[in-house]
Write a structure and sequence with these properties.
The chain is mainly alpha-helical. Helices cover 76% and strands 0% of the residues. The chain starts with a helix and ends in a 5-residue tail after the last helix.
Length: 410
Amino acid sequence: KLILLDSLLQEMQRQDVFNFILICMCMILTGATYTSLSPIYPSQAVNRGVSVTRIGIVLGAGFVTTLVCAPTSGTMIGRFGAVTVMSVSSFLVGLGSLLFGFLIYIEDGTTFFWMSLLMKVLTGLGESLISPVAYSLGSQLVKETNRGKALALVESCFGVGMVVGPVLSGSLARVGGFMLPLCTIGGSMLIISFLASLFMKAKEERQARQSPSGWEEVLLCPGMFLFLISTAYSGSTPNWFSAAMEIHLNQQFGFDSKETGLMLMSFSLAYSLTSPLVGTFLDQGLSADAANIVGSLAVILSLLTLGPVPGLEWMESVPVTASSLVLQGIGNSFCLVGSLIGMVQATKVAGLPQDDRTTGMVTSIWLVSLCSGSFLASVAGGFAYDQMIIFYFCSLILPSRTRRLGYEEI
């Protein structure tokens, strides 16, 4: 990853280097906000009488907010400029995370749930705008031949944040309680917002208003619909167990919040390390369709062994669980990065202008599809746990996934 970053930075001017580093830092912190709650929030909610189904709703609320707000990012980039959108969205994420930490003082379960939901929506509002503008800014800072690497590297920074989030929140929670990790991440995001508003400049903002593409043009690009379906399925897989993983690991293996964070890190670490490699493979000729097939096969195998499915109970152990999460992270990197770059390539084949607005619209659609699958899986996974069918429920998505990719013809 460092070699890829060095090769990209060498072709940039000094201002572009600063922009790219700031974009990467913003994505790291955004990724951390997505996963920082997993090791620390469920236990706090359960202690206040909040059901696992409601915990799943809170953890998935950010995805619904993204689903609603992300489509506006292309319009906002064209109207206000990419830097302004990035500064404001970073501020919202930082503020939401900071305020979330103060919920520790609420003892009533119902109030705790609704305030958690409100803070998660506020954070999700910022998250829904950060990713599209980050992908748009990052891809325009490099030559077209390196666009796949740039997009994959920005995406991998998000994965790094997902790696850091559980470990950081679990470790800081042991030192300073529930509030410390959330205030740390939120405060850092506010600093990023301040730096972006003062020093970040974007030459590509001048291009964002030229030859604008419409939503219908983007959605009707060849292959776009299949990439959206693949993104939704891939985005759903790690969220089937997000609301119940902390509880499951504690009951089965006696894990505390730090150990749960380390276990969850295996998925995010595998994802973030593999994503730049997938971008390189795609730049060197690997088709987006092939990347999705390879990734889907890996994800299917990981879901079969994670629970594990009925009949494989003898496999249940810490090493098998960790290996399943690693395999799932690798599979998701092939599917998600492959779909994102495939969608960008589809707009080029369709003859659409390759500017900030088009890239922002593509990444918005990609993000909406990702969050649709993520939210539905998060809520359904929590409900499944409450109904005493934890983890086995994961296997229900496999038949439709297999039919879509046409494995019976391979």
